[in-house]
Amino acid sequence: MATEARSAALPPNASAAGRPVPELDSALMEQWRSEGGELIDLLTRARERLGGIAAVRLGPRPTVLVTEPRAIQHVLAQHPDRYVKRSHRARLLIGDGVLAATGEAWKRQRRLLQSQFTGTGMRRYEQRISEAARTTAERWAEYARAGQTLDVGEEMRRFALDTIWRSLTGHPLDVETEHELTAVGTVVAALPTLPADAVDAQEAVAADLARIDAVARHAIEAARHGAAGPDGPGLLHVLLDAATERPEYTDRLIRDELITLMVAGHETTATTLTWFYLLLDRHPAAREQALGAGEEGSPQRREALQALVNETLRLYPSAWILPRHATEDDTLAGYAIEAGTDILVCPYLVHRDPELWPDPERFDPRRFTTPGSRPTPPGAYLPFGIGPRACLGLQFALRESTILLEHLLPAHTLTFHSTPAKAAYSITVRPDGPTPAILTAC
Length: 442
What we know:
This protein is an alpha+beta fold. It has 18 helices and 12 strands. It is globular, with a radius of gyration of 22 Å.
């Protein structure tokens, strides 16, 4: 049934006027509601029954799910002006930072930060990433010697937070700051359950937001008074320099950008690395294959480690769902999209489409090293999104993950005491529970 629906969903010579988007049967919607299902369950059901473009009624108007690669390119890459980002689920935390900003403000903010994450900008942060990775490797060596249990998720969060803090301020993460910034994870985890009213939501996490704001104020003041770290100034200094020429860079916007970069720069990487180790626990041969691909530091080993990360991101993309809003009438792959329609692009489901990725639930890093083993349309693999609003830190996150694995993977194997039974779908898709493990030195 799914194959037939998919074939019908993308007619080669569709009318310019467009046909109505097929909508999930109301009985199935009621069944989902009565079961108390997750949104991902509903979207999975819609894609399986109706194909790559399907409608579900979450409110008074249908919301259109898009999982077909060509349609994704149309929405995210070719016509981002027709399909806009209206708000961000984490706005109460990140304010008007670049992830939540829209229109001309977003363009200005993105332009300022873009150069920091490509070419010369990335080389500037390589040393800081490596230092954070070495710190983690030393800590893990001590855990192994002591036979101490660690929580893999917490360790990955600690590494990623240290990395982004060094990149923002030029300083390694100190114990007090690390403790205060646990409030970031608390707010992020609470987002799906916060009240719909913005004021009530703000009040529900007010104490945690106050802790985060205090850290941001202290960092901004330290940077403003010349407190560059041992590796020189960081991204925060770029924002402060911009404020001398651009009046829109108030202390509030600098705070919002700082928190945005902190959230985006560590939550997604930490989650990806946690999933990586959980997947490796189920597929231990993948570790030996990667380490056997080449000598330490060789391009072959780096490529193999990168493939491990890419396959992890296929199964658990950093951006698992990308909401957009149609600002004008459009025809999408032969279907009529009315102005005002909410759109959900879902990389999580795209990456599990058996017509794009054979045996999609199987963890197989060779998809990214064997020619012809992965689909070619850009819309078929988009763990960080595509188009002008794709994640700024894509290269940073991939490099960060690979450098850490270069340090950790040859040195230790992990044995989990227990693993989470399911995933939680919030800003990221993350393991829903602790990940206690012990290390064995190799």
